[in-house]
Amino acid sequence: MTDLHQHLRERVLAAVGEMGLDRDVADPLVRLGPPKNRDHGDVALGSFQLAKLAGEPPPAFADALATKVAPDDVIESAEAAGPFVNFRFRRAAMAREVLTAVCVDAAPYGRAAENGQVVCIDFSSPNIAKPFHIGHMRSTVLGNALCRIHRHLGAKVHGINHLGDWGMPFAKMMTAYMRFGDEQALHESPMRYMFELYKRYGKEAEADPALDAEAAAHFKALESGEDNEQRRMWQLLREESLQAFQGPYGRLGVSFDHITGESFFEDKMEAAMARVEAAGVLEESEGAEVVTLKEQGIKVPCLLRKSDGTTLYHTRDLAAAFYREQQYRPTRILYVVGAEQKLHFAQLKAVLTKMDEPVADAVEHVPFGLVLSKGPEGKWEKFASRSGNAVFLDEILDEAVNKVRQVIAEKNPELEDPQQVAEQVGVSAIVFNDLKNGRIKDVKFDWDAMLNFEGETGPYVQYACARLSSILRKAGGDVPDVASVDFTHLADAENVLLTMMGFGAAVQRAADQSEPSVVTNYTIALAGEIHSYLVDHHVLGADPAVRDARLVLVDAARKLLTTGLHLIGIPAPARM
RNA sequence: GCGCCCGUAGCUCAGCUGGAUAGAGCAUCGGCCUUCUAAGCCGGCGGUCCCAGGUUCGAAUCCUGGCGGGCGCGCCA
Q1: CB distance A186 to A554 below 8 Å
Q2: Residue A24 resides in a domain
Q3: Which of A2, A61, A508, A542 could form a disulfide with A56 if both were Cys (CB 3.0 to 4.6 A apart)?
């Protein structure tokens, strides 16, 4: 909440108090929000519930409330409109509040002070025995954005890459490599080659079921902890793939605080199992060790040890939860993992609950939809890496970057370092597209839409930043001191200012709902206001006092847009 | 079969947790470059908010029941 909103809220509460309502009772009913239509005012209050409390008809109550909130140096007007009260801030006050706060980097526009929250974010976590394809991108970019958003709000964030470097998928890759692998080919192009092995294994295992048994045996040998061939194989493949993954991570601007894959918990699983057993919830079933969860409302039990004695995904996630709790003391642990694994995380949380472990409350699955591609009949269908039509992320990014390069050649041929800008804009277009819609929605991977850089796209927002940067550059680089600005000159920038004031609320909502798209859409809205404003408000040609005020506005808008983009992992080039 | 998710303009989606006349972008049609980047701006067209009940002063939003699509349901992750 901005200072202006805080002030308004105080005034409304005082007025409501004068009207005979108990302040504490009324407090939660004072819900100030943006009005349906901006023409109505800056902030609206539906007085239905307050009126009910006062025993008056809403329109009469709204009328009385509006007269009680007299104008002051912040509030310009309060007008009743039927059961609603519409408030307007003084334009100069809005400009002062926003521009000053942005300028000194104060919260909620700038990064907040430590707030005591500790948030673990388990994201990306790819199965490194598979190629890094488009499907891996969602968790990666969503998690990266959530890390940045929580950090901005003052949380201590632990971004964790819980690599899938253990278990059966890895064992299958080992088996394929040990049967028909070639070290030379592996070194040449690890990701491509492993994808070939992956496909070949799938094909051969279909014809020869013995392959899966072999893989299971290899996994058992690996998990024995002995220094054997399997372990050396595991090490080799793990290093190669991890290396190969650095490419995509680098291009996406993603980094991790901890890369602790499933294998990291190899020596921590027995302790975890002992803890489950000590809690008295472990049962034997058909030769396996399970925790039944009927009383938690989940029909299927959670398997923690297979009948051949080896561990499972759940075992490692459980060990990881204990480890994170003891190591980081998190208030929240977010698992940014596809919606198809909902049951898995419900089980994980239920097991911890049944064990009476407090960390259960921190566990929070952040599910997201699938990536779909257009099928032959125009129907949206799942990307299937198994059938071998997986699209490598690098190819997608390259295609977008190439398209951007063309656009640059066409629109801004004199741009220096077009290659770097193309990379920044092209990769962002793909990332932005992924973060634009609510995460639970399936992403429709539509080349035409993604390579169109007009409208609600990453380039659209970056373009706004570039235009602002250009103005500042042409002004000579010196932005006037905020303290010297006559804010009355910015009355015509009310739409920009109002939108800027919504920044904090957007970031907060994104964090609360684990929904980066709120920030993405915010950047679109602000960029739109800026584009509109710049059309008929020239900065450099204006009278000195107006010019100074507008320069400060431009500088603040650029800062805020840059921050917004940064929060979703996207750079803001100064020229494009 | 059971559980969960989704259903809003031709297409892709918002809709701030129940409020005012349901909003954007794309596509389409029309207008705007002698001044800071036209990857832009302004306007037109376009709606049975899947259907039927219910709760409420008020429902796209909450509840029940359908329909359509998707995902999941013990030794994979």
Answers
A1: no
A2: yes
A3: A61
Per the listing, tokens 């049944």 go with A354
Instruction: Give dist(CA A468, CA A565) in Å, integer.
Output: 14
Structure tokens at A337: 């993992």
Neighbours of A200 (CB within 10 A): 15
* A538 CA – B62 C1', rounded, Å: 49
CATH for A33: 3.30.1360.70
Query: What's the CA–C1' distance between A340 and B2, in Å?
Result: 16
Q: What is the pLDDT of residues A432-482, one digit of tens each?
A: 999 999 999 999 888 888 999 999 999 999 999 999 999 999 998 789 999
d(CA A503, CA A262): 38
Whether residue A84 lies inside any domain: the answer is yes
Q: Could you tell me if residue A106 is inside a domain? A: no
Instruction: Name the token pair of A328.
Output: 């980081």
Domain-embedded: residue A250:
no
Q: Which domain holds residue A55?
A: 3-89
Q: In angstroms, rounded to a whole number, what is the distance separating the alpha carbons of residues A520 and A507? A: 10
Q: Are A41 and A69 in contact (CB under 8 A)?
A: no
Q: pLDDT tens, A492-542?
A: 999 999 999 999 999 999 999 999 999 999 999 999 999 999 999 999 999
ipTM of the complex: 0.96
B37: residue with closest CA to C1': A467
Dist CA A21 CA A25 (whole Å): 8
Total structural domains within chain A: 1
